[in-house]
Amino acid sequence: MKVLYFAPHQVWPANTGARLRDYQLARHLALCSSVTFLEMHRRGEAQSVPPVDSGLSRVVTLDKGRAYSLFKIVYGMVGPTPITVWNCWSTRSASKLADVLRSDRFDTVQMEGIYLVKYLPMLRAAPGPPAIVVDWHNIESEVMFRYANLTESWSKRIVAIRTAKLIQRAENQLLDICTTHTVASERERQELLARRPRANIAVIPNGVDTSSYTPEAMSKVSRQSAFAQSKPTILFVGSMDYHANVDAVTWFSRAAWPQIARNHPDMHFMIVGRDPPPLVRALASDRIHLTGTVDDVRPFYASALAVVAPIRSGSGTRIKILEAMAAGVPVVSTRLGAEGLAVEDGVHLLLADDGPEIALAVTRLASSFETRIQLSRAGRALVCRTYDWTTIGEQLYRIHADLVRSRTPSPSLKGF
């Protein structure tokens, strides 16, 4: 089976949740298939090559073009196509995609999300034609609506609401046109089925390479790492160029951290994630630390008393929570942060939605070794049982293989 895996970003380094999901799913498809990874590169972005053991047959890079150009802003504001879709479109990329589709014939295409939708007619017109699996990392309209509800800027709110409505329209068209979809959680599946009850939607959750987070592996990377933290530390992990993560750490530092700092004078807060903006860098102090990009997050998990996920916006499921549980680190999360995960409050993690509740949960963990051990064991057992990438990759492969066997024709394209 030959698979074209099409993503709106580079495959490597796998330093964001989206990249990590795509790399792991493509890598596991490659165990039983020939996988061409079609990535998109932004001008000025450093290019990286995936590890030799990724199993990918080849990686083809498309030029994403300039984001938020005047043309894209104008058409995104006055036309029917959201600017987030325009930001992934360029004629140069379309031309190179056409070359790829002419030079090789694919059985299936894995298309990563709504932002690639302008390339869909080309994929459908390819020789074969290939069956298409649309993978939804998030429900992107939901992300934008939640951002609109959270932002304090009225101008940003207006733009976000309009963009969210355009994205939702495009999502509904995508549900009508493509026959097979995958989402990261049952909650998202039900949300999309409420729009289109006849849609064929399967759950392919986010996951973790649990073999990299065994106690032995964690101990080894901790010994080899230059990072050492003797003080009790609570940890946040996430890309700092994503608005939901920026909001999470700034809100936490304002709403929960002062009480935690007073109750635990020796406790520190560590923010691990690439490209922190000035708003986040301004949080740095003698007890709040920023790392920027790190090569390996495991030493930070190994030294953490707990991981916090004070998420108030965004969508999808958070790999940061699964990683923490795989590493045996107790988690304190908002309910929205843990949304879509098969977790139970007080069993696998602690849920808290406002500053005082989060501070109380951190105090509970700091003062009770038994609670930390209970959550650590239950969390890791859940991840090993349900969220290991090997199991998830096998589920995705079966979807592709079944499509190749059935080869059902697809509806005609309208609306794009």
Structure explained in plain terms:
The protein is an alpha/beta fold. It folds into 2 domains: 2-207 and 389-406, Rossmann fold (3-Layer(aba) Sandwich); 210-386, Glycogen Phosphorylase B (Rossmann fold), CATH 3.40.50.2000. 44% of the residues lie in helices and 14% in strands. It is built from 17 helices and 13 strands. The strands form 2 sheets. The protein has a 7-stranded parallel sheet with strand order 3-2-1-4-5-6-7, sandwiched between helices. Helix 1 crosses helix 17, helix 6 runs antiparallel to helix 7 and helix 11 packs parallel to helix 15. The longest helix has 24 residues, at 154-177. The chain is globular, with a radius of gyration of 22 Å.
Individual helix count: 17
Structural class: alpha/beta
Give helix % range. 40-55%
Number of domains: 2
Number of strands: 13
**Run of helices and strands:** EHEEHHHEHEHHEHEHEHHEHEHEHEEHHH
State the CATH superfamily name of the largest domain: Glycogen Phosphorylase B
Largest sheet: 7 strands, parallel
Question: At the first level of CATH, what is the class of the largest domain?
Answer: Alpha Beta
What does the radius of gyration come to? 22 Å
So, CATH architecture of the largest domain?
3-Layer(aba) Sandwich
Give the spatial strand order of the biggest sheet: 3-2-1-4-5-6-7
Shape: globular
Name the poorly predicted regions: none
CATH fold description of the largest domain:
Rossmann fold
Mean pLDDT rating: 92
Distance between the termini: 28 Å
Percentage of residues in DSSP E strands: 5-15%
